[in-house]
Amino acid sequence: MEKAIFFSDFDGTITKKDVIEAIMSNFAPSHWEDIYTYLTEGKLDIDVGIRMMFNLLPCEKKEEIVNWCLENVEIRDGFNEFLLYLKEKNIPFVILSGGMDFYIYPLLKEYLPLIYKIHCNRFICKGGRMDVFFGYRCSKECKRNCGVCKPYIIQKYYKNYNLKFYAGDGITDLDACQYNDIIFSTGGFTEYLKEKKKRTINFETFYEIVNAMEEMERDINHENHL
Ligand SMILES: [Mg+2]
Ligand SMILES: [Zn+2]
To answer: Cβ distance 95 to 117 under 8 Å?
Structure first.
């Protein structure tokens, strides 16, 4: 029996939209957009860029931001059913996110019993400004200064799993993909992977992921009976 695991990005993958982008556009002064553009174009290291953005916000805004997220951030359809499906199949669900704990945990509160582990950045307050504590820095194989280094985490903590699923929506998921067997992608990331001739299964809702996994299981069972 194969030992399977499912990894997922958070922002824009579990949620319909990128939460950091939403927080910044509602709470930060407008030059956050320059930082964000540099980040997405790869002109700024991820760790530097994310600190620069959160430094724009005073710590006292934290509660207001969390409440705003709880009211405005939408989780993709079928997430609960997807988690129940994984539980039934004994497949642990692990979140690898370059986002921040202070909004991820409240947004996922009702789902936490079905989540095996969340690896993300930690919120700290420094001199009254929001700041980021990086718990998972890159190993020397990764040159991106990720903050939360997804390939590093997969290699260090989960290498004993021999069937790895991954869901993501952006460039920071790219390096993680090479350590995974089956990639689910959404948004512009699907096009990007297709251009690079990488195999990927596009999804909009988690129901589609469940369907695809059920289909794969049927195929495997069928092959075993031939
Ligand atoms: Mg994302
Ligand atoms: Zn890295």
So the answer is: yes
CATH 3.30.565.10 given to domain 4-225? no
CA 148 to chain centre: 10
Place of tokens 């991954």: 166
Distance 160 CA to ligand 1 centre (A): 25
Which amino acid is it at 49?
G
Task: Tell me the residues surrounding ligand 1 (ion) with CB < 5 Å.
Answer: 9, 11-12, 169-170
For 125-172, how does the pLDDT look when each residue is reduced to its tens digit (9 = 90+)? 999 999 999 989 998 888 888 889 999 999 999 999 999 999 999 877
For residue 173, the CA-to-ligand 2 centroid distance in Å is: 10
Axis-axis angle for helices 62-72, 19-27 (nearest 10): 120
Closest ligand to residue 98's CA: 1
Residues 143/170, Cβ–Cβ less than 8 Å: no
Ligand nearest to the CA of 156: 2
- Three-class SS state of 90: coil
Strands 93-100 and 117-126, by their bridges, are parallel
All residues at 6 or more sequence positions from 55 whose CB lies less than 8 Å from its CB, including other chains: 129, 130, 131
Angle between the N-to-C axes of helices 46-54 and 19-27, in degrees from 0 to 180, rounded to the nearest 10: 40
CA of 2 to the centre of ligand 2 (A): 28
131 neighbors 124 (Cβ within 8 angstroms): yes
Q: What pLDDT band is residue 225 in, cutting at 50, 70 and 90?
A: confident
